[in-house]
Amino acid sequence: MVTMWAWIGRRKQRAIIAMCMEHVNKVIETVDSLRAMLEHYDKGEFKEAMKSYEDVFNKEREADNIKRKIIAELSKGMFHPIDREDLIRLTLTLDDVAAYVKAAGRRLLITEPMNIPKDIFNVMKTMAAKAKDATELIKNAIMELYENPRKALEIANDIERIEEEVDDIRIMGLEETLKWCQTVDIVSCMTVKETIDSLENAADKCEDVADVIRSIALLTL
């Protein structure tokens, strides 16, 4: 099958890839802002944490705007339907990563951070760091799709491994959260659990992006 990567005009191809890179960079910034928010909360730096959440909110919105631009660009010109579908899936799924990261930050605002035990904060910080690692690998994989699809496949496997690690970390976090829930109000308990779940969902979406990358890479070989 002749795919977009083989037959679309070189200039158009590079323009789409550049927009995808801009998108993934903004998602990485969103995840990094959440990681900073967690660090500030853990240190009792509440004003700084709120500023980091504003960054999360704004970066996610910027990623959303780039997503719309990519989809608008894909609606123009001659794209094979399969190629267009894969790139739309790539864009929408990557955008979901930022959406779940924003959800995690928003839920964390509901509870009193000074009441959250250190062990649970460490779990959330580790999950956020892993999510950032996964998004940076996504960036590397997209860069390789154009010249070295086999390398992109290898990176996709690394992303999947990170998601599996996050699953294991989440289980530990839930164990600690359930113990803590016996001593606090239901709102704090549910909010922390849902924050952890949102972080896991972000990692799950990174794995979904890796699956899309695999699909594009296999068609490119």
Give keywords:
elongated; 221 residues; 87% helix; Methane Monooxygenase Hydroxylase, Chain G, domain 1; mainly alpha; 7 helices
Report on this structure.
With 221 residues, the chain is mainly alpha-helical. The protein has a single domain, classed as Phosphate transport system protein phou homolog 2, domain 2 (Methane Monooxygenase Hydroxylase, Chain G, domain 1), CATH 1.20.58.220. Helices cover 87% and strands 0% of the residues. It is built from 7 helices and no strands. It has helices spanning 4-7, 10-42, 46-74, 81-108, 118-147, 149-181, 186-220. It starts with a helix and ends with a helix. Residues 1-9 have low confidence and may be disordered.
CATH topology: Methane Monooxygenase Hydroxylase, Chain G, domain 1
Second CATH tier, the architecture: Up-down Bundle
Tell me, rounded to a whole number, the average pLDDT: 89
Distance between the termini: 10 Å
Please trace the helix and strand order, writing H or E for each element: HHHHHHH
User: How many strands appear in the DSSP assignment?
Assistant: 0
User: pLDDT under 50 segments (min length 5)?
Assistant: 1-9
Integer count of domains? 1
